[in-house]
Amino acid sequence: MVANSNKPRILLFSQRNIFAKALFRASLFEFEDVIAQIDDVNLVAPNIDPVNRRNSLARRLSFHAPLTLNPGIGKIPIEGNYDLFLAICGAPGDLLMLNAVSDWRKNCGMSICLIDELWVTRMAEYRYFLRILKKFDVVMLYYRQSVEALAERIGRTCVFLPPAADTILFCPYPELPKRVVDVYSIGRRSEITHESLLRKCSEDGMFYLHDTVAGDQALKLRQHRALFARLAKRSRYFIVNPGLIDRPDIRGNQMEIGNRYFEGAAAGVIMVGETPKNEEFEKLFNWPDSVVPLPYDSKDIGLVIDKLDGDPERQERIRRTNVLQALMRHDWVYRWERILETAGLKPRSKVFERKEALNCLAEAVSLEQLRVAAN
């Protein structure tokens, strides 16, 4: 059954104006954009006065006392009533921003908070921020191994929601651009593997695209995201590893599924790296060669690439399968359906329109597979 109306039924709290240049939040804002395209949404995106210092002060104090300070944002009045209040947060410190929104609990029938990064080892440190989550009916987490610990701490329903990607944006079909980048690596990396790839560049003339400056700010996040997608679908190999793989002091024993796995699959790259020792990964990426294994800090990346380069049929099968699986399972629309189901809401017709567009792209992938097999 489809529920249709022109009246906004979703109150979506976005931090896109507060963290307008933060690279790691680009996928969160991408999810918000897709939600706004496929449902009736009132998006609330406040600003912080750049000369107002209360934000940093409130954050510091909240680590030491159960305070509910307003982080330098003027109160935002909420008019009308909504079926769902959804707040998407990058980290626990973001929860302080919710104090700027007036009466969201009173004006909304259901409330859900989605948090990107929350490690069990840091829950005690963020204990006063996490108290804010008790106002919500449901908390959704990208980190599966944090779910039970958070539920026990706050006494609320907590569930796992996997990351995803705008698979239409990342999909290389039907244009199929040439894959001119041999290896693409962004973000955290093993210096041992990195040096091995640099040597291969010198020896073989390989094109290895990697970060050369440190920083977490983009001039315009939407443009950055589009460029990232264009580069990914023009790349042959893509380095992936679990979240904070190089920081066991923060993640402890957790091995969580980062966004890169979903983005890489959507772009049809051959993902090379370590897979998370996480029960959900086996369910989400349960097809052959979804990730070609390479231990973190391995020097053998060149050998792995050379072996794959000697098997063009396997390469093409991996790329097509990754794209197909991403289109059918790992687009944001499927995560939105999960949120609606949790909230007891019916999807709008635009949800099915987007899924039909995904099906059309999937058919293009399947037809290409048949064409290649026939030749």
How would you portray this structure in words?
This protein has 375 residues and is an alpha/beta fold. The protein folds into 2 domains: 10-160, Rossmann fold (3-Layer(aba) Sandwich); 167-329, Rossmann fold (3-Layer(aba) Sandwich), CATH 3.40.50.2000. The chain is 41% helix and 14% strand. The protein has helices at 26-38, 54-62, 104-107, 127-130, 147-154, 167-170, 191-204, 221-232, 248-251, 259-267, 279-284, 301-309, 312-329, 332-343, 349-374; strands at 10-13, 41-44, 82-89, 108-115, 138-141, 157-160, 181-185, 208-210, 235-240, 270-273, 292-293. The strands form 2 sheets. A 6-stranded parallel sheet has the order 2-1-3-4-5-6, with helices on both faces. Strands 8-7-9-10-11 form a 5-stranded parallel sheet, with helices on both faces. Helix 1 crosses helix 8 (221-232) and helix 13 (312-329) packs antiparallel against helix 15. The longest helix is centred in the C-terminal third of the chain and has 26 residues, at 349-374. The chain is globular, with a radius of gyration of 21 Å. The model has no long low-confidence stretch (mean pLDDT 90).
Tell me the layout of helices and strands.
Blueprint: E1 10-13, H1 26-38, E2 41-44, H2 54-62, E3 82-89, H3 104-107, E4 108-115, H4 127-130, E5 138-141, H5 147-154, E6 157-160, H6 167-170, E7 181-185, H7 191-204, E8 208-210, H8 221-232, E9 235-240, H9 248-251, H10 259-267, E10 270-273, H11 279-284, E11 292-293, H12 301-309, H13 312-329, H14 332-343, H15 349-374
Parallel strand pairs: 1-2, 1-3, 3-4, 4-5, 5-6, 7-8, 7-9, 9-10, 10-11
